[in-house]
Amino acid sequence: MNGLALHERPASPAFWRIALPHSTAAVPVARALVRAALAELEDGADCDTAELLTAELVANAVEHTSGDAPIELVVRLLPTGCHVEVHDPDPAPPGDLLHAGDTMPDPWQEHGRGLLLIRALSSSCGHRPTGSGKAVWFRLPLVPPQRRPRPA
User: Fold this and answer.
1) Is the pLDDT reported for residue 103 higher than 90?
2) Which of 23, 57, 82, 111 has CA atoms 20 to 30 A from the CA of 63?
3) Strand pairing of 71-78 and 124-130?
4) Rounded to 10 degrees, what is the CA torsion of 32, 55, 72, 111?
5) Residue 14: beta bridge partners?
6) How far apart are CA 31 and CA 27, in angstroms?
7) Which of these, 127, 126, 151, 122, lies nearest to 139 by C-alpha position?
8) pLDDT per position as a tens digit, 43-54
9) What pLDDT sits at residue 90?
């Protein structure tokens, strides 16, 4: 058969890259971009989880890096789900992204749960050095659409 069958996805993933200001104003912009990007997936990844984890990565990049250099959000739609990266200018790896720390976050504090959420809710996560700092990333799998009741 020539061309794609109806159930096949294109081989190359959709890709978005956007520079965000180094301020808390970047968080809602990043959430909106991820939601819009995931609307492109037929089956989709969990938009609420993707938005939450993206907000955590962007907020961490803003809070834990100094200077005015923009941070960058990269969203890739893959045949198996989505891959989200946040690039920042600090080469130091993020705290306890890959391994739980010795103590649990204080439930009464506003801070300290972001990396725990990323570890717990993503299918995988990590960080890598870049030419200008680091990229911190997570992946979410596709979630098949829920069955909807048929109208009577």
Assistant:
1) no
2) 82
3) unpaired
4) 160
5) 77
6) 6
7) 122
8) 677 899 999 999
9) 93
pTM reported for the whole predicted model? 0.79
Distance from C-alpha of 115 to C-alpha of 60, rounded to nearest angstrom: 9
Q: Tokens 């048929």 belong to which residue?
A: 150
Rounded Cα distance, 8 and 23, in Å: 40
Q: What is the pLDDT of residue 143?
A: 79
Of 81, 64, 83, 63, the closest CA to residue 73 belongs to 83
Distances (CA, A) of 123 to 12, 20, 34, 113, 143: 21, 25, 17, 17, 12
Question: Which amino acid is located at 49 in the chain?
Answer: T
